[in-house]
Amino acid sequence: MPPAAAAAGGASPLRTRARAKVNLDLRVLGRRPDGYHELESLVAFAGVGDELSLVPHAPSSLAVAGPRAAGLAADDGNLVLRAARAFADAFPGAATGAFRLVKRLPVASGIGGGSADAAAALRLLARLNGVALSDRSLRAAAARVGADVPVCLESRARLMAGIGERLGPVLRLPGLFAVLANPGVPVGTVGVFGVLGLAPGETCAPARRVASAPPAGAAELRAALACSGNDLAAPAQRIAPEIGEVLERLAALPGSRLARMSGSGATCFALFDDCRASAAAAKTLARERPGWWIRATLLR
Q1: Secondary structure letter of residue 188 according to DSSP
Q2: Which of 21, 25, 103, 231 is catalytic?
Q3: Residue of 103, 148, 274, 283 with catalytic role
């Protein structure tokens, strides 16, 4: 019996999936006087992600495994343990346990891997302690851990704004068949904003109406997305020129309807009409670039 299970008296682990977050678009509205950037983004979630389990009532700890675990420390700086501390601060005396993270998503890749892991930790602790995901203290704890953690808490499509703390209502997006691709180059968010170069107090664009609903059909939604973009794509490509090649190759795949970068990069995505087209495109790209992380998935 593993030590964590023995310490917990053989308790069955709780499990959840930390699904990849994809920014279908991303607008930088400006930079606040305190230095934080105001953003607006339509966010969807993929069918691929990390896996997190929690052995209840074991000593608080974290073990990391999986194909993307190399170089990822299981120390106090890990977002899973930061989330656990934020939960304990919000709910004094709450039960905790031993976490095990199976890392499958690329690190520092613009699809919220660390934020999704932190949100997964909060979900498991909430389940263990009977806390609803709508609890205000839980949502506040999520915001303290990281900007993308609140939207990852329920992992449902929404319009997010501010520095990630303002969430619109849950959206019923049509399923979007996609290919995700990452060239294996980590891109730091802080560096991308540094290249963007906005001064504190500088504004770029007006906010759109949060109440506006996306089109109901996949083709209509793709057409609407084609009129938007990702304001961080250009500065990210200055840090990692490989992103340009990813976008070019995604756009050139048979059946590709839209190619765009997610978050601050370097992961990019392309949208297709159906699952056959996306699966075939993923296989083609994997043959061309075997060293890249490539997944066909459904965004919703």
Answers
A1: -
A2: 21
A3: 148
pTM of the model: 0.93
Asked if 63 and 99 count as a contact pair (C-beta separation under 8 A), the reply is yes
Helix (H) or strand (E) holding 155: none
d(CA 184, CA 109): 8
* pLDDT of the residue at 10: 64
Dump pLDDT digits (tens) for 70-124: 989 999 999 999 999 999 999 999 999 999 999 999 999 999 999 999 999 999 9
> Helix or strand or coil: residue 179?
strand
R_g (Cα) of the chain, nearest Å: 19
C-alpha 291: how far from chain center: 22
135 is catalytic: no
Show the low-confidence residues of the chain (pLDDT under 70).
Answer: 1-10, 208-212
21 belongs to the catalytic site:
yes
Tell me which DSSP letter residue 203 carries: B
